[in-house]
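Reviewers of the previous submission asked for a worked example of the structure-prediction workflow described in the proposal, so we include one complete record here. The input consisted solely of the amino acid sequence. No template or homolog information was supplied to the procedure at any stage.
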Amino acid sequence: MLTRRRFASTLAASISSAPIASSAGSPVAPNILWISCEDIGPHLGCYGDTYATSPHLDAFAARSQRYSYAWSNAPVCAPARTTVISGLYAPSTGSQHMRSRTHLPAGIKMFPQYLREAGYYASNNAKEDYNLEKPGQVWDDSSKQAHWRNRGDRPFFSVFNLEITHESKIRTRPHTWKHDPAKVRVPAYHPDTREVREDWAQYYDNITTMDGQAGRLLAELEKDGLADSTIVFFWGDHGSGMPRSKRVPCNSGLQVPLLVHVPEKWRALAGDAYKPGSASDRLVSFVDFAPTMLSLAGVKAPAQFQGSAFLGPQTSRAPEYLHGFRGRMDERYDMARSIRDRKFVYVRNYMPQRIPGAHIDYMFETPTTRVWKKLYDEGTLAPPRTYFWENKPVEELYDLENDPDEVHNLAPLEEHRETLDRMFTEQQRHAAEIRDLGYLPESEIHRRAAGAAPYDLGHDNVKYPLSEIMAAAEQAASRCSW
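From that input alone, the workflow returned the following structure tokens.
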């Protein structure tokens, strides 16, 4: 039987998928709690947002590690969560389109299944929203009643998803504003109107409500005597639900808050990368979550995983770039790929004829969207507030340090040619590496797969000659030359 100290000091040399032992109800592997929420960027006090009111998460961040550069990979929930649960970029499995449905190839599982095989109790309360069929039983319980309290004597991996910050809650009326709309910072791309200010203020009100819900979950953990044996992750599932954040693969749609707390008991397990009360500048994205959970649990990550562990004994070298993608969103098709480093974000638009604000019924339920489009149609807006309603450039490049609203496209400027070429080369390399299926129309993916897993199609160079298809896509998009 492993003691706590021996477990922490020898785990790196003994990683396996063997069931985890426990003694007197005290697991020798860490409990893991995820608190996720919907549709928020890093709009918390602990990220320096002075308009936000988030006391519980700010206090949690003070004793945790805050990640300054965390991306959701997709700017909408289902493809983002599909990437999380599979450990694979959704374009690699043909599941990048919103609310599509496909399946993993034989032998590849969703990561909680590996935890369950190793002896974990896995619960999810309660959102799934995967674009992949579940390959067997993924959770011990996935319901509104799911809770770590049902675990018996097993270590647990428990997920709680807080929905109050979802896009749909921004427009719930009537509403009594607690954040003063007059004090909102209106982004440079939005018109400064009453509707826009009220929507942003309500968004921040919802974050405050969510903050209280997260605080109650942390208090439950403390009350149950589990706070000192549980690693806690807090994260948002993509950028804010406001138009030009959600569904847009810029930093505004992809950057999320990520806070991780490792209690003293498991500090050695986390490794040197973890420093409580600090901000990490490591680039982290959702594709990294699965290998990180297995690393912390002492389970060897499958070779097919496309991310890298950022905590635990399997921690690997930090990536130089983060990668984002957009496919079909509800009833509107598009294809874009994006990458960022610590300073720049680059977007490659393969359908530049599609405007960012293409009409999606659900998006137009938000008052900001309607008033913004009305003002554009009336001709009363000037750039950059017009860009959302106009054709996209083939390439976009933004300096996030000096232009956090991403409204000054540097791609046409000769002085940024080296950066542009570097980012373009990396986007192409990554697409080839993951065998990105987004270069095929959605229906063609399924036609060519002919009932097999799209992932397998992507790795069949006869049925999917990727280099030739990518070359055709580049020619069609007509890479800019200035």
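The longest strand covers residues 278-285. We consider this example representative of the routine output the project will generate in years two and three.
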